[in-house]
Each structure stands twice: as structure tokens, then as C-alpha cells.
Amino acid sequence: MTEIPEQILIAETPAHFRWGVETHIGKQRQDNQDSFFADPEPALFLVSDGMGGHRGGALASGIIAEDLPVMIENALDKLKAGTPRTIRSLLNKMIAEQSKQLKLEGTSETGFRDMGATLVMALLRKDRCFVANIGDSRAYRLRKGRLVQLTRDHSVVSELIEKGHIEPEEAANHDARGQITRYVGMEEKAHSHVRSFALKKADRILLCSDGLTDMVADRNIAAILKAQTDPHAACKSLVAAANEAGGHDNITTLVIDWLGNG
Predict the structure, then answer these.
(1) How many domains would you assign to the chain?
(2) Which residues contact 46 (CB under 8 A, 6 or more apart)?
(3) Is residue 59 a contact partner of residue 112, using CB atoms and an 8 Å limit?
(4) Domain of 124: which CATH number?
(5) Which of 107, 179, 190, 220 has the most beta carbons within 10 angstroms of its beta carbon?
(6) pLDDT digits (tens, 9 = 90+) for 50-69
(7) What is the residue range of 58's domain?
(8) For residue 198, is it within any domain?
């Protein structure tokens, strides 16, 4: 499911979660280069943000949203021992393979040279959540009113903060803002950040592109997630907040609510 500007989708399933998603072009872009995938059957969700501000970005994120879920589902079906460690390894391997294929696609007649995209995804397996990312699209968890970033930004600014060269408060106005160091389709092998955790009742997971996080502070994201109990209403409010702040980029938000096992 890709590129559905200004549309809200919500699903409630017999499973132990419900979800909603919204994607919007924002106020300053000519097209929406964000894509997403959401399927409650394998409980697999992803958001991808096309890079470069040209047609190649939209094509790249669309390919990821279409191809990567199939690769992951096929690999999971063949998995003999579905331990957390083996699933994390599988996700890392599939993302690296997708990156390799996207790089090759960029050299074909239908592709665009140097096209690429960020990725953030969540996979729910029994009572566990697996989160993977590459680039600066993020996943957050809201648990008991506390918002925690689950992903690691692969960006120049993030590396400068980690090395102590700049303070976190300087990131918003730094010259290197928006420059990412890893992405799907990169020349080198794509190493993603993958983690997993045990889900607890009432956990809320947010996947989003940087069109949200560049415009809305974490504390305000948390406030919206706490105020809007319905997942699609939360997605709509988050997008509205990003647009009210300027809407400098495409915005995609995807919220998953874990209802518990009983």
C-alpha cells in the first residue's frame, strides 16, 4: 500500500492489536514520496521515505513497500526456529538484500541512478515486537505515558551528537540536518538497526517519516498520542501538527495499539 495522500486508513482485526495510518504531501512538496505497507495478517507494518526530492525517491519507497514485505513473509515461512535472535537476523538480512536489489534497479532503464529511501518497520510475533530501521525514519513506543524512541538515526547530525561534537539542542539548526549516512539502495552493504522487546498491554507503537519528527518535538508527539486514544485519530492529529508547524516535507504516521493477549 503506497502513496495515498491525504487519506486515513484504520483496521481492527480479531488479533490483539488495532492500527491506523495517514500519509500527506505536506505544504511545500510537489508530490508525496513517502510509501507505507500495512497488513494485519502477518502483522507487518512499514514506512519508507524516498530520498532526493525527485521521481527516483517515490519509485524507491514504492518498491520497498511492495517488495520487502513479500521477501520477509517468504523468509519467515521457511524459518525453522523463530527465536527473537533468528528473526532479528532475518530482518537485517532481508533489508540488506532489498538494498542490493534497489541499487541494481537504479541502473536499469526503469530506475533512477542513486535512488534510495529510508525505512522503518515493525513486525508483531505473538507477544513480541521487532523493530528495524535504516536512515532517519523513526519508531517510538508510548508505554504508561512515557515516549521512547526505539530506532537509531543514521544521520550526520546523530553521529555528531554521539561523538560529543554538538549538543542535541543544536541539531535542529545544524547545516548537516537531513543528511543521512545509511539508506536502502546505498552503495555499500546496508546495515540496519534491529531490536525487539516484549509487548505489554496498552503499548502504542508509532512509525513515522521525518516529515513529522523534523516539525514536531517529541514532547508534543507524546502529548498527541496520549490525548488521541483512537489510532487513526492520533495519526490525523500528528499530521495536522506537522502541517501547522510548516509542513516542510511529506508526512506519514502509522500507529499500532497492542491490546494484550486476553
Answers:
(1) 1
(2) 36, 37, 64, 65, 68, 69, 119, 120, 121, 122, 207
(3) yes
(4) 3.60.40.10
(5) 190
(6) 986 567 899 999 999 999 99
(7) 7-152+185-258
(8) yes
